[in-house]
Amino acid sequence: MATLRLLAGAMIGAALTLTACGESATDKSAAAEKSAPEKAVAERLAILPRSETWTMTAANSGRTFQIFLATPEQAAPEAGYPVLYVMDGNAMFATAVDTARAFARRPVISKPAVVVGIGYPPGTDIGTARAYDLTPPVGPKTPEGFGGADDFLTFIEAQVKPEIEKRARIDKQQQILFGHSFGGLFTLHTLFNKPEAFQTYLAASPSIWWNDEFIYKPAERLKSKLAARQGSVRVLLTAGEYEQIPDPDVPETPPVPANSDAARIGGPQTPNRMPAPPADILAKRAQVSNAQKMQRLLAEVPGIAARVVVFDGEDHGTVIPAAISRGVRVALGPGMNPPSPAPAAPNLAGETPEPVPTAAAYMEMTPEGRYDLRLKVRGLPEDARKRWLAQLKFNLDAGLPYAAHLALHDERNAMDAKHGTKPVE
Fold first, then answer.
1. Which pTM does this prediction carry?
2. Contact 178, 187 (CB under 8 A)
């Protein structure tokens, strides 16, 4: 089994590179000279047993990612290992592995798990890359350099998971997603758009504030998605006390130029210094309040068990180990039982003259075909029309990602403008 050589350095962008067992000191020195980015962050070496790494290129986007894998020393259960997928793998993977292995030594409260990190190869501008991959598309108003989360999720589902399942025995009913900051936002995005992808969602310090709290919009459709599949998930949201108010022991970081690389990823990033945002920024982002609000929203959805934890004395950076630890305990231990499945949805349309298409069938139609169908429905008696539209809304909410809803909304307006028609309320 190969092992990972950890090159310790900046929290964001720390490099993890593959080293074969038995590598000589000379080989290690030569390997350390291969890459300038590695040299910049390399301060000390450590060995992470039973671990390996490789690159994968996403078929849908052409973007290249570094995949990190750690397997337990314990034998796999009959159903396979639980698996923890960790975003920002360059920074979070080693901590997640150590935490999962520490808990596995306490079988009363946890069990062995495979840990997968998804990050970036050396030389990548990680701040820019993660800002794109971990943020949701918001239609035509998506800010430049953001909005790649749908493509990233497709890459994980279509390519990363099958590869992991070739290399380790995985229990597909115990898949866990962890993300911090933008990674936490991606975790919520995945929950709201494809809840069946994972059974447990760990959203640490999620950037709910991003793009005027856009993430609350797709949250409204989660109930339909779970009801359509009679699904259930567990969700843990975490945040640090000093993510919403200043830490009295840490001075505020001076502003950085708006066009600088540091500004793009949230402030100056050095191996030993993370930024302390000004009090007004902390208050505006409302990390703690938003996490609590999101938990209350999710707790009302049938099929979801949701919990929120606020860690005293921690800020946006220092909370990471605590969030990982609590997440592993919740995901792999007995402390948070799965909820009852969401009840099946009733037939909302009843008997109508016009059949209601599924989401897949509706998307297979051409824009003109969808427009013609809407005209037919607009001509139905009011009661039948409202029932038909309620069923279509449920079908689309259950079967489509939010980006598709935005596209359909724009298409409907464009077709009505083209033909001089308007919706019937």
1. 0.86
2. yes
The per-residue pLDDT for 7 is: 44
- Same domain (yes/no): 266, 391: no
Task: Look at residue 373 in the predicted model and tell me its pLDDT.
Answer: 95
Sheet order of strands, 114-119 included: 51-57, 64-70, 114-119, 81-87, 170-180, 200-204, 233-240, 304-311
Q: What is the pLDDT of residues 183-199, one digit of tens each?
A: 999 999 999 999 999 99
Q: Specify if 351 maps to a domain.
A: no
Question: Would residue 43 show up in a list of annotated catalytic residues for this protein?
Answer: no
Name the active-site residue from 38, 52, 243, 314.
243
Q: How many domains does the chain have?
A: 2
Candidate list 189, 224, 316, 325, residue with the active-site label: 316
Q: What is the pLDDT of residues 77-105, one digit of tens each?
A: 999 999 999 999 999 999 999 999 999 99
In a domain, residue 353? The reply is no
Other beta carbons less than 10 A from residue 90's beta carbon: 27
Look at residue 43 and tell me whether its pLDDT is greater than 50.
Answer: no
Per the document, the length of the chain is 425
Q: What is the mean pLDDT of residues 128-142?
A: 94
Find how far residue 91's CA is from the centre of its chain: 15
Kindly state whether residues 7 and 123 are assigned to the same domain: yes
Parent domain of 404: 359-419
Sign of the torsion angle spanned by Cα atoms 325, 56, 79, 184:
positive
Residues 397 and 268 in one domain: no
Q: Tokens at residue 220, please?
A: 């409204």
Catalytic residue from among 110, 181, 205, 325 = 181
Classify residue 265: in a domain, yes or no.
yes
Q: Is 243 labeled as catalytic in the residue annotation? A: yes
Mean pLDDT lowest among 9-13, 77-81, 279-283, 320-324? 9-13
Tell me the CA end-to-end span of the chain in Å, nearest whole number. Answer: 64
**Is 207 known to be catalytic?**
no
